[in-house]
Amino acid sequence: MLYVSGEISGDSWGIFAFLCAALWNLPTIPALNSTDEVGAGQSIQKTYDLTRYLEHQLRTLAGTYLNYLGPPFNEPDFNPPRMTRAEMVPSATVDFELWRNLNDNARLAANYRAYTHLLCYLRSMDGQVAKAELRKNLGHFCTSLQGLVVSIASVMSSLGYPLPSPLGSANPTWAQGPGATSTHNDFLKKMDDFWLLKELQTWLWRSAKDFNRLKKKVPPAALMLRLEARGF
Amino acid sequence: MASPVPSACCVVLAAVVMVYAQRHSQMDTHVQYERLGADVTMQCGAMDWDAAVTWTANGTDIDESHLNGSHLVLRNVDLTHSGQYACYEGSSWHLKYQTYLKVGTSPKEPVLMCRSNNYPKGFYCSWHLPSPTYIPNAFNITVMHGPRELVCEKDAFPKNRCHIRYLQLFSTVKYKVTLTVTNALGRNATTITFDEFAIVKPDPPENVVAKPVSNNPRRLEVRWQNPSSWPDPESFPLKFFLRYRPLILDQWQHVELSDGTSHTITDAYAGKEYIIQVAAKDNDIGTWSDWSVAVHATPWTEEPKHLTTEAQVAETTTTGTSSFVPPPTTKICDLEAVVGSGAVTVSWAEGLVLAAVGVLFI
Fold this sequence. Notes:
Chain A is mainly alpha-helical. Chain A has helices at about 10-25, 40-70, 95-100, 105-130, 130-160, 185-215, 220-230; one strand spanning about 95. Chain A is about 65% helix and about 0% strand. Chain A: Pfam families: PRF (PF06875). Chain A: It is found in: Secreted.
C-alpha cells in the first residue's frame, strides 16, 4: 500500500483513510507495479484528460446555470468587479514567473487545494438549486470533480508528496445554505455563484497547462528511483 | 561716444524689420478643417466687407462669382477644394489673409481587434478606420483589467498597433479595451471585452514542406515548424490541422494531429499534384490560426521504362478528358480504357503483359 510519509502520525492516518476510501471507489487508478515504468506519467495523463473532460462538461452546465440565475449573469459581456466575499474561492490567477517556476509539489498542491475547496462550494450550491434537472446535472459534475481530486491525490502520492492539510479549517460561512442568507442577499448570492463558476472554469484551463508541464517534467525514471527508495 | 553712422544703420534696419513684420503679421498661415458637403465662407482677415479683394486658390485667381463682398464663399465643398487660399488687397496686391483648407469627415466607428499569438507572453491590439477621413486622426487606446489600467505599448510598425505583456496568467477578470479616434471634425470610439483565453490565436505554422516518398506512389511526407512567435511550445503545446487535395478537385481532406510536426499522407492519388496547408491551435484554449502558405507536391512516380506501366498509360488516357473521375482505390487494370484510346494502340497480348506488370505494382 502507499505511504504518505515515513512516520505515520495521526493526521497522516486520516489522509491515509480518506485515500483508501477514495481509491476503493475508483478502481481505474493504475496499480503501482514496480515494473510499471510509466505509472506516474499515466496518472498525470489521466488527470490531464479529466480536466479537459470537466472543462467541456462545465461549459454546458455553466450556460444552463447562468440562464437559471437570469440577467445580467447570463450576458456575455457581464464583467462585474470582484468583491472580497468572493475571494474565499481560491483563485487560479497567478504571476507568470511564479507559475512557471513552481516546483512539481507546489504545482500539484495548488491544484489539489483549489479543487477540494471548489468541490465543497459546488456541493453547497447543489442543495439550493430549485430546478431538479439542474440539481441532477450539478450532482453529476460534482462526482466527476471528486474523481479529479482523487486523481490529483494519487499523482501526489505516487511521487511521494504529502497531501495538503484537510479542509477542516475552511468553513465557508456564506455557503451554509438558505438559512444563512436573507432575501436581501439574493443578488449577492447569485454573484457568488457566478464567480464560483468563473473560477472553476479558469482553474480547469489552468490545470490543463499545469498537467502539461508536469507531463514533460516527470520522467518515468524519477518515479522508479522513488519507488525503489521506499522499498517497493 | 556713440558713432553716428552705425546707429543710423541700426535705425534703418529696425524700420525695415518693422515694416516687414507689419506686412507679414496678417499672414499667419491658418489651417481650416471643413466637412465634406458643407458651405464654407472665408473672410479676408480684417478687411471690410465692401473692400476690393482678390482671392486665389493654390495661386490661381478665383472668379468673382464666388465672392460675397470680400468674403469667399465655397458651396458644397468636396476633396478638390482642399488647398491653399489667399486674399490680396485689390490695388496694392498686399497679402491680407492666407489659409489652408482641408476637406474631410469626422471619423466613423473604428474597427478594433485584440489577439494573443504569443501566449502566455501577452497580446496585441490593432485597429483601423472603416473609411478614410482625409484629414489627420489621433488614436488613443486604453486597456482596463478590472480596476487597473494597463499600458499598451505602441508598436513602431505597423503603426496602428500596440502590445501588452501579461503580468498575471489565468485571470478570471475580463480585459476591456477602448479605442478613441479624434480629428478636427469629431470623434468616435469602440470598446471590446474579452477573457484572456478567448483571444489566443497562434500564427500559422512555418516552413511547410511536402515531399514525395520514394517507391510510394500514394504517399506524401509533410513537415512543418511551430510558428516562431509562439514562445513556449514545450509548456504550451500546439496541435495541428492539415488539409490537402489534388489541384484538380475542390474537396479538401482533413487530418487533425495532436502532436508532432510531421505527417505522411498515405492516400494520395498517384501522379496528381497536391496542394497542402497546415493550421495550428493551442492544445486547450483559443482558436485555430489562419492556414499556412500552401505548398505543392506530387507523389513519386516511377521513371518511364521500355514497357509502359499502367500508371503512365492511365495518365495519357485521362489527360484529354475534361472531367476527372477518381480511379477506384483498389487498382484494377481497366483494359477497356487502355485498348479504347487512340493515343496508344496496344494489341491484346501486350495488354495482358501490361495487366501483369500493373498487378506487380499494386
